[in-house]
Amino acid sequence: MASITIRNLDDDVKTRLRVRAAEHQRSMEEEVRIILRDAVNGGRAGPRDLAKFTRECFAAVGGVDLELPHRGPMRETPDLSDPPGCMS
């Protein structure tokens, strides 16, 4: 992995980065990595957490209650000890 040093960064920018990182519960360094990654990817977001995405989608409507279908008894386990058509 490469390293980068940024000189002459405005104090206001650094403060806003620190606040933004805290809001996302990340370190300032991780926040800057994500900002740079998004910038060079043309604004395309990377892979998302599907569970988090789903919760965010349904949070506005208070969630969704799904009715589970009735489950019948399990089928019997097939006997594979001597399969038909198998030559011994």
How does this model look, in words?
There is one protein chain. The protein has 88 residues and is mostly helical. It contains three helices and no strands. The protein has helices spanning 11-23, 28-40, 50-59. The chain is elongated, with a radius of gyration of 26 Å. The mean pLDDT is 85.
Brief digest:
With 88 residues, the chain is mainly α. The protein contains three helices and no strands.
Q: What keyword list fits this structure?
A:
88 residues, mainly alpha, 3 helices, 41% helix, elongated
Write the topology of this structure.
Layout: H1 11-23, H2 28-40, H3 50-59
Helix pairs in contact: 1-2
**Main sheet record:** none
Number of helices: 3
Estimate the mean pLDDT confidence: 85
Model regions low in confidence, pLDDT < 50 over at least 5 residues:
none
Q: Cα distance, first to last residue?
A: 58 Å
- Nearest-angstrom radius of gyration? 26 Å
- Total number of β-strand segments? 0
Q: What is the beta-strand fraction?
A: under 5%
**Portion of residues within helices:** 40-55%
